[in-house]
Amino acid sequence: MCLIAVRWQPEAPEPLLLLGNRDEVYDRPAAPLAWWDDRAILAGRDLRAGGTWLGMTRQGRCAALTNFRQPAASRPDAPSRGALPVQALASSEPASAFLEALRPDAARHNPFNLLLYDGRELLGYQSRDDRMLHLAPGLHLLSNGDFNAPWPKAEALRAALADAPEDDAALLKLLEDDRGFEDAHLPHTGVPLPWERALAPIFIRTPTYGTRASTLVRIGRADVRVVEQGFGPEGPLARTEIAFFRQDPQGA
Fold first, then answer.
1. What domains can you pick out in the chain, each with its CATH number?
2. 190-194 — which CB contacts under 8 Å span 24+ positions?
3. Model pTM?
C-alpha cells in the first residue's frame, strides 16, 4: 500500500476501519483479493515475489505494508517486503511479540512500515529507525513516510474523512481523488521533483505507474467485510466484495 487511513475504536462495535490505495507499476503482475489456496489468509497477491500488501485472517487479524520512500537506501538484492504481512498473518502471537521478533531481521529489507492488528491491539513498526508504535484510539494516516507524517495526500484524506458519509461507496470514492498539491507542500524524499509531483495525489495516474487497487476493510466484533476496487492504466477493473464471520468474535 502507498496510502492507508485507519480508524481505530477498540470499544466500538466496529473496532477497525481501514482504507488504502496500493500503487505499483502496471506491468507487475498481481492477483486480486481472494482467499489463498496455500495459506488461510484473504489478500491480493504479488505474482512476482509471492507476497502481499494487505491481508487478513478469519480471526480478524489484519496486516498492511507501505514502503518508506528513500531511494538512497534501496538495495536491489534485498528480500521482498511483501513477505512481511504474510508472516504477520501466519503468526498467532500478539502483535507486540511478533514485531519484537521481527526487529533483528528488519534491516535485511529495504525500509518499510508495517501495520498489524491482532484482534486486541493496533501496532505499527517503522524499520528505518527500528521504532514500534502502540497506536492510540483515533484516526491514523500512513503513506511512504513515518506514521502520521503530515504528507499532503494523508492530510487531504484525513480532512475528507471528517465529513464523509459512512457508506462503502462514499468512502472508496475518497480514494479516487487525483488532485495534486503545490510544490511547497510536497515531501522531499530523494526522487526528482516531477516524480514527487506525480506521486503526490491520493490517487496516482502516470503512463506506467499508478493506483492499482483501492481497498476498504471493516473489522467488526463478529464479522469482517472487505471491498477492493481494481484499476488499470485505462481505468476501473473488477470490484471484489467478501464478507465473513470471525472465527473468534470475542477476540476484539
1. 3-251 (3.60.60.10)
2. 190/69, 190/70, 190/71, 190/72, 191/69, 191/71
3. 0.96
